[in-house]
Amino acid sequence: MAQKSLKKGFTTGAAASGAVKAALIRLLTGTAPKEVEIVFLGSGTRTVAVHQVHCLTKNSCEAVIIKDAGDDPDITHKALIGARVTLTPGDGLQVIISGGIGVGRVTKPGLEIAVGEPAINPGPRQMIMEAVQTVYDTLAPEQTHQVAVTVFVPRGEDLAKKTLNARLGIMGGISILGTTGVVTPMSHDAYIATIRAGIRVAAAEHIADLVFTTGRRSERHAMGLFPQFSEEAFIQTGDFFQAAIQEALDQPFISRIIYTVFFGKAVKMALGYAHTHAARSGMALHTLADWAQTVTGSRTLADQIAHANTARHAFSYIYPDYPDVIRHVGQKIQENAGSFAGHKLAIRVIILDFDGRVVWDSNERDQQTEVG
N or C: less crowded end of the chain, CB within 10 Å? Predict the structure, then answer.
């Protein structure tokens, strides 16, 4: 049976442009639309329902769109994204975009938006501008106004707590995001964009050494190892081994990456996978078994690893009796990371056991001064 295709959604930026369109149509025609057409950047359109239109004065209306992320696991799925549109007389059509409640404000350099500005990215700004122009071209080609747009997200501050916005210097709410306006389910683009933003903020703060981890848990342990590092130095890279390193290469100020990872993820990185997805676990254990036999000469150990259920299970056979196997894994990670970096970055690797204790550090001679 054919696999069901995943439903695409639309971004917070696309939702904001739809809300602007709905509010503006109400102001220019006196009738609130039940739905509006979102025009995506590049190509494509989508008709979406208008959740609410509310007028404050004869020259100011608010509209709300419910953001639909499709089948993507997005924290803003079903969030209310709104826009207040206020018209005043003007020479020609002018659009001023600002952020209201629930939209974060940029407080650190390095992002696409300048410090002090609302966190409404260039793509959404362009979609809003084009939405305004389309409505005037269609409904009021002879009219000229200054169009003041205030984007708001009623639960934006609460939603932001589930993101890395605060670390990136986006305070008070979520970012209004989107490159094209379309959300592709399970797309890598959004995660890589978050990695890129974190690295850019770190570089703007003149942080030369970054600590890469694969998630919140490994990051928590890494922060304990490096309490002298600022929060901006820690970057959660997820499964994106190669892509994260290449993003760091784009920032000349960055000179070293310290990869701090649990043993299970370390094995996949040692295999050289650019993207270390969990589906490759079986292959990883068989290769680990081969390495174990080569390093230790123990057929018994190799068989135990090859028949282990998980990396944690395999680790129980390896540690603490066979530290050379862990060293081999760590050195492979260094080699692969160095290759991904074109040997332009210093790479340090720290492998953690499943309780977060250091079991191998490529920089062992400096452990006493840098770790613990």
Answer: N
